[in-house]
């Protein structure tokens, strides 16, 4: 069985400097730094197995980043972008930011404002209201719950955060402290 040859990596001086800067910078994410180390070692002529052993990664990972570096260096993509993850497939967002913002606005308003005979919003009632108003075609109450959780909104507690408890002013504080001392 023929042995796979490692993709040869040739770094220009500017690429080498950028990789070194990424590695020295404390704010560089660890996965980017690891990929930079793989490329730096590959440029010295190290095999995939040597890189894997020294950095504690798989041979497949070493092979992947060598290949990806080589492919992207032809198109002259900047160094940092070459070390980023590829975009992943998936369905586009179902709801626009405007629709989500309208959900938050409704959740922050009292249900009476929308002629709902309830004291507090639930995820189910919010989903029904969004559909009734024509903001969305359909939405599950679970998704409404997830969106509210992401925004840290709790409409069932709206009475407290819409109407916080009264604050004590300085003259009341002094009266309280005088009473506690006597």
Question: Can you put this structure into words, describing what you see?
Answer:
This protein has 182 residues and is mainly α. The chain folds into two domains: 13-82, no CATH class; 97-162, no CATH class. It is built from ten helices and no strands. The protein has helices at 13-24, 30-43, 48-55, 59-74, 79-82, 97-108, 123-132, 141-150, 158-162, 170-181. It is elongated. It starts with 12 loop residues before the first helix and ends with a helix. The mean pLDDT is 84.
Describe the structure using short key phrases.
single chain, 182 residues, mainly alpha
Note the quaternary state here.
Answer: single chain
Helix content: 55-70%
Helix and strand sequence: HHHHHHHHHH
What integer is the average pLDDT?
84
- Gap from first CA to last CA: 94 Å
| Beta-strand proportion | under 5%
Work out the radius of gyration. Answer: 29 Å
The parts where pLDDT drops under 50 for at least 5 residues are none
Shape: elongated
Secondary structural class: mainly alpha
Biggest beta sheet summary: none
């Amino acid at each position: 069985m023929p042995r796979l040859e490692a993709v040869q990596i040739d770094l220009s001086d500017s690429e080498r400097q950028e990789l070194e800067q990424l590695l020295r910078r404390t704010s560089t994410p660890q996965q980017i730094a690891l990929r930079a180390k793989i490329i730096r070692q590959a440029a010295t002529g190290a095999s995939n197995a040597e890189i894997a052993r020294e950095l504690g990664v798989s041979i497949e990972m070493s092979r992947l980043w060598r290949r990806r570096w080589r492919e992207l260096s032809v198109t002259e993509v900047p160094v940092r972008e070459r070390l980023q993850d590829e975009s992943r497939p998936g369905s586009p967002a179902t709801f626009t930011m405007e629709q989500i913002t309208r959900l938050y606005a409704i959740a922050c308003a009292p249900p009476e404002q929308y002629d709902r005979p309830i004291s507090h919003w639930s995820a189910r009632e919010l989903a029904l209201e969004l559909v009734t108003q024509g903001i969305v075609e359909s939405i599950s109450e679970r998704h409404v719950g997830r969106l509210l959780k992401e925004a840290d909104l709790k409409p069932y507690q709206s009475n407290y955060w819409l109407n916080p408890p009264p604050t004590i002013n300085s003259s009341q504080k002094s009266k309280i402290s005088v009473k506690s001392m006597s």
